[in-house]
Amino acid sequence: MFNELYFNIKIILKQKDISFLAFIISLFLLPNSINLSTFALVTAVTLKIIQAIFFQNKLLKTKALKYSALLGLLFFIYILLSSIFQTSFKNTIELFNKQYSHFALLFLAPLLFKKRGDNKLLLYSFLLGTITAVVLVFLISMLNGTPFNRVAFLKYLDIHHTYLAIFLLFILNLILNNLFNFKKGLTNSYKAIFLTIAVLIIAVLFQLESKASMIIIIGLIVFYIFQKLNIKRLSLFIISLFAFMFLINAFNNKIHTSYEKALDFRLQLWEESFNIFKESPIIGNLKAPEKDLLNFNHYVNGKYFFLDSDLNSHNQYLSILMRFGALGTMILLLYGVYIIALIMKTKQKYTISEFIGFSLIILFMFYIENVIDRHHGIVYFSVFYNYYLVAFENEKN
User: Fold this and answer.
1) Are 376 and 102 in contact (CB under 8 A)?
2) Degrees (nearest 5) of the Cα angle 311, 216, 190?
3) 291 occurs within a structural domain
4) Most buried among 140, 142, 161, 395, by the most CB within 10 A?
5) In a domain, 251, yes or no
């Protein structure tokens, strides 16, 4: 593995592919500094375009990336035209930076990718960056004598605990896939290292008090165990696992939080989001920012306690439906249709299993948060969707 990575780095340096190096750096910085990560990402895109124009470098390396970029561009044009149609050109320009600009990454991210072997550098850079962020905040918290919790990450690195949880769950998914599906088997030393990292990740998620993460962890473990155990043993495992989680929840104050309370306010938001969707189900509602639309509905329906909360839908599916309507939703669904079509043609069981774990994480988080409306979320989604897209496209790459 390390020899392969070293070989790939040497090739990229020899090719002087500066845009890809900037892309690698941006992923390392993603959990550590949103400003530096954004700067590196913009630099990567700019350099890629320059390389394509002046050095005749290929803009999109594979057929799958071309389709991905086309879908992203189609969605981006759709939301701009929809906004202009529903409001005005001037209003669309005024809202562009905060409401629409981040969706440009859906068609810009595919430009930055190389072939499958080289793209692994992006994966390892992201993993190293995430681990660095956790260690850094832990050390700062220790030195300052402050609690190591979600507030610490927001204070020192300006990263919301939801996105940090997604990043850590992503690493956990890779570890579980290696433990259960690694082709040639792992040595006991590697198994011990992976298990230790997995335990540390779960411990950090406990500190973050991420209720969603606890559910996803159970889902991932059950998914991977399901591939190895028969039904009888699987049933016993699930019962034991839930009993174990119940005991932890009962005696550990760190995760002894109210799921009902967390769900209650979301149900209120989801109700108003769906009501807004019903007002314009075909093209959606872009007459105002999402939070303004929800606050207006809260006011009209007498939910005055929500007016100062400045909350979005806290549900990516409803957010997309209410803002972009059925037409916009159908365009985004094509992302899923396309990658499933590629999966149907491949025999890469190891990568398929890894992608399913990735999908479980992102699809569940979509259910409780507006993941792709923030920089951390849209970068994570657009990068790793295209990462797996290239992996599935050609088994020999």
Assistant:
1) no
2) 135
3) no
4) 161
5) yes
Q: What is the pTM of this model?
A: 0.87
Q: Domain count for the chain, please give it.
A: 1
Q: Using one digit for the tens of pLDDT, what is the confidence trace for 209-234?
A: 888 888 888 888 888 887 766 544 55
Pick from 332, 325, 329: nearest CA to 284: 325
In whole angstroms, what is the distance from residue 381 CA to residue 386 CA? 8
Of 200, 206, 76, 165, residue with least CA distance to 377: 165
Using CA atoms in the order 106, 382, 226, 120, what is the torsion angle rounded to 10 degrees?
A: 130
Residue 21: alpha-carbon gap to chain centroid: 21
Domain assignment present for 268 = no
CA-wise closest residue to 361 among 221, 257, 267: 221
| Whether 48 contacts 86, CB under 8 Å | no
Q: Residue 347's domain spans which residues?
A: 2-261+312-393
304 part of a folded domain: no
DSSP label at 110? G
C-alpha distances (whole Å) from 166 to each of 58, 181, 292, 347 are: 32, 22, 27, 27
